[in-house]
Each structure stands twice: as C-alpha cells, then as structure tokens.
Amino acid sequence: MASDHSASSAPGVPSLPPQQLATYFALMESVSLLQHQVDQHLRKEGAISYVQFQLLARLADAGGPLTMTQLADGVVYSRSGLTYQAGLLEKAGLITRDTYPDDERATLVTLTDDGAALFRRVLPGHIDAVRRLLFASLNDQDVQQLGDIMTRIRDQMRAHPPRSAAPRKRRTGRKASPPAAAGTD
Amino acid sequence: MASDHSASSAPGVPSLPPQQLATYFALMESVSLLQHQVDQHLRKEGAISYVQFQLLARLADAGGPLTMTQLADGVVYSRSGLTYQAGLLEKAGLITRDTYPDDERATLVTLTDDGAALFRRVLPGHIDAVRRLLFASLNDQDVQQLGDIMTRIRDQMRAHPPRSAAPRKRRTGRKASPPAAAGTD
DNA sequence: TATTGTTATACTCTATAACTATA
DNA sequence: TATAGTTATAGAGTATAACAATA
C-alpha cells in the first residue's frame, strides 16, 4: 500500500507520517502471516479453522456452557455466521446445543468431551506456533510494551464503533478484562 | 481462547505466560477489528475489498507496472487467488494485464487511470480510519516502539516458514525493506 | 526441467433478509 | 416491541490440481 508517504504532497490528500505507515504495514502483514500459519496448523492437526478453534477456546476458558451471544463476542461478525460455525462444530460432535431453561430464547452451547479433547490436542502446537512466530524475537519488556499498546488500541476500537456499526450484537457486557486474567474458575 | 493460563497445570501441556497470552489476544482482536472496519469502508466507498485495495496500493506505490508474482507478494497466498482478484480488477477497469515483452511467461499488470483515481478516492477515508482506530491512542514513542517490535516480528516470520510452507511463491526477492522507505520513485 | 500464469472445480465462509419463538 | 437464534440464499473468496507456454 502507499504512495501516501509524502506528508502532504497534494492538497486535501491526507497521509500518515512514514513512521505510522511503516508500523501499520508491519502490523497488518505480521498478523496476516500469523493467522494464516496458525490456521493451517489447526486445519492439519485438528481439521478445524481458526474461528472454530477460537470458539472452542472460549468454551474451554469459560469452564462451562455459554449462550450463542456470549460465544459470538469478538469472534464472529454476524449471527448467522455463528449459527453456521456452531452447526459445523455440533455436527463434528465437538459441542452440543440446548435450550437455556432460564431464557428459552437462548441456546446454551456446551463443549463435549470430544471437543475438549480436541482442543487439548491442538493447543500445544498452537501455542508453539505463537511462541515461535510471534514471541521468539521479543524480550519481556517488548512483550510488556506490545501488550500495553495493543490493549489500548483494542479498547479504543471497542469504544469506537464506526459510523455505521454492526446491527446489534455484543450484548453480554464485556468488562474489557484481559483474557488472561481469568482462570479455569 | 485459553484454559492455558496456568504456567504448567498439566504435564506436557505447554502454555504461555499470562502476559504473552494477553498480548496475543489483544493483538489478534485489534487487527481483526481493524481489518473488518477498513474492509467495510472500502466496500462502501469504492466497492473493493481490502485485498483488492492492497493490490491497487502496491501498483500505485510501485509507480509502474508489476508482474503478477511481484504483485502477489505478501498479499495473497495462492497463485490462483491472485488471478481471480486480478480478473475482478481488470473487469472493473482498474488494471490491465499484458504480456511482459522481456519474459513472455510473465504478465504485466498496469494501473489504469480509473484505478489510480479510485485509489486516490478511497485513500483519505482509509487513512482516516487507520488514524482513528489504530493511532488515536498512541503517542510518538508508542508508534516508534510498536513499529520496531512489529518489524522484528515480521522479519522473524518471513525468515521462519513453517515446517511445510506454501509450495513455491515469493520469488521476486524481497529485501525485507520497510514498505515506508520507498517513495514514488 | 523450472517458472509464470490461467482455468476448472469444489468448497468454505460470510452476510442479508425473512422467519420463529420467547421476554 | 425487543431479543435470541435459525434458515434460506446468494455471493465472495480460497485453494488444489491440471494445464499451456515460455526460459
């Protein structure tokens, strides 16, 4: 991307300072590569996509059933998309779906033993890939700084839905708590 | 994702230190959101996808024609995928494809005036979104640090093709030079 | 023989809109 | 009426393998 290096070569044509531009590119390319490789690994090792892995991970992390809406948050951008993925996971025997007694509109998604087993099986390789690709060249301070910065960016984005955000999703009320904070509690 | 917070809760189950895990999540979620919103903007404003925008941007930045292979680098992960996207762009009149005289196996892709115009048209909004979403909460030092870190990560990944990397792409010989370095030269 | 690119094909994924059912 | 979720459907994107042509 680019041709927008000159701080203001043309009138009215906004640009980014070179430093920001380079940062933007490095960020997008890195994550694109990481996503792609991690996805490849998961498909090969577990016959699941990255999205599906994220859903299993959410369930594993929650330590219990979640409603569809809770499950969707941040992973999928449309309701039907989640229904589709959940359908695949259910067909594969990795989750079950049942009506939530307390609110019969809701669907309670539960990780099956097979689902949990699959998650445990692919996790080491996943972790390993992330460690090799993402963290291999960083020291503790780098990780700290990167985490701090990306957390700020994420919060900025969550708080900054574009002019016309998605219809209506995300209702469960995320506390914007760092995912790593929770235990298997 | 998770249930892998405990540094070593189970034997043989690798994990990541909480700090790394949180950083990983923040990074992936942020970029996912950014990609999604930027893609939305481009489709609305210019009826092109983010991938297509990246291809136009590469051509605009190059300041002249590129071969398919040069164009692909880093943006697309399969040859046929690029042919597909190039077909769309050509059909839309944004690029042309011709045989490269010096090597008749190659296809030379040229940005048309319409393509250049479209790129210029959507660029401001794109830049604006990146500025708002990505950089709004960062000061110069943050940008510097983030750029430094992500550049290292990108280089790490480029140098670290997974066990079984893609067949054979990427031949043009990237010098791993920061994208922002080049001008419209 | 290796490389560049295209085609055919099959599949995955996403999103919109219409719909059902419960609150 | 608003919310939770599903379904139908249609389109966009991706990847593999087979292919043609040039180096």
TrEMBL record, chains A, B:
<dbReference type="GO" id="GO:0003700">
    <property type="term" value="F:DNA-binding transcription factor activity"/>
</dbReference>
<dbReference type="InterPro" id="IPR039422">
    <property type="entry name" value="MarR/SlyA-like"/>
</dbReference>
<dbReference type="InterPro" id="IPR000835">
    <property type="entry name" value="HTH_MarR-typ"/>
</dbReference>
<dbReference type="InterPro" id="IPR036388">
    <property type="entry name" value="WH-like_DNA-bd_sf"/>
</dbReference>
<protein>
    <submittedName>
        <fullName>MarR family transcriptional regulator</fullName>
    </submittedName>
</protein>
<feature type="domain" description="HTH marR-type">
    <location>
        <begin position="20"/>
        <end position="155"/>
    </location>
</feature>
<dbReference type="GO" id="GO:0006950">
    <property type="term" value="P:response to stress"/>
</dbReference>
<feature type="region of interest" description="Disordered">
    <location>
        <begin position="154"/>
        <end position="185"/>
    </location>
</feature>
<dbReference type="InterPro" id="IPR036390">
    <property type="entry name" value="WH_DNA-bd_sf"/>
</dbReference>
<dbReference type="Pfam" id="PF12802">
    <property type="entry name" value="MarR_2"/>
</dbReference>
